[in-house]
Amino acid sequence: MDSNGDGMTTAQANINGISISYEDKGPRDAPVILLVMGLGGQLTLWPDEFVDALNDRGFRTIRYDNRDVGLSTRFDAAGIPNVKWMIVKSVLGLPVRPAYTLADMAADGIGLLDHLGVARAHVVGVSMGGMIAQHIAARYPQRVLSLTSVMSTTGNRRLPRAQKEAMRVLANRPMSGDKEALIAYSVNAARVIGSPGYPADEARLQRRVRTDFERGWYPQGVARQMAAIVADGDRRAMLKDITAPTLVIHGEDDPLVPIDGGRDTAANIAGARLLTIPGMGHDLPLALVDTLADAIAEHAKAVAVAA
Questions:
Q1: pTM to 2 decimals?
Q2: 29, 55, 82, 139: which has the fewest Cβ within 10 Å?
């Protein structure tokens, strides 16, 4: 175990030939919620207040750094992909070969549950993490008690694209440079894709970005994760295999993954329920912690009652 300097204690697990950094919090005998983070996001991007809220509602939480992010294994030897060219190839129907796939990342999540001796869990994923969670639910149905897909989508190319400013800020992510300039970029990106109805406190945002930068800034991994998203394509056929009770949560003002992505996700999973939140963008605002935790906890507890 090690401390990240912010009071959080994480551990390392050897899974699928790589090392995954994770935090396991809450009562050992409580039902487990596996929290799967999105593109380039370290486990610290799950607000502590949100994790605590789930613990307070009677759940054990497991959050982790995906491969190629934070303190988990980095795939330096794979090089940096030309994501724009991969997108062009994908549109043309040509094969796209990423360093790893979203299915590989789903296997990491299952491997972590195996490592911790957890037979079944409620799986909650945000953005790319929602895509990974969809893979987990479709590929490992016996391991999933419920699925919650947050601010995510299906890969359907006919859906509306991100707003131009949101797309521009993520497409121009710097790979290197002055530390303060990189932190300023990250703060600006968080503002651009964040919730217009619930703007982040400036001091808190600066502190969070700086802490994450010092913990594990690694944009090369983000490029490879983006390549995995591009290669994954349209998941709608796969979503029809999901049998876990599913809740889809989406902000009505998401500039990066428009709300149609959430609607399409719910429409392609049998029995899925859709919760849309006015003013919410592509982040987890502190003002919505209780709203989100209540929705997820009620969804998970309803599954337990039904069982």
A1: 0.94
A2: 29
Per residue in 185-235, pLDDT (tens digit) is: 999 999 999 999 999 999 999 999 999 999 998 989 999 999 999 999 999
Sheet holding 2-3, edge to edge: 2-3, 9-15, 18-25, 60-64, 32-36, 121-126, 144-150, 246-251, 273-277
Domain boundaries, the chain: 2-161+219-306
Protein fold of 2-161+219-306:
Rossmann fold (3.40.50)
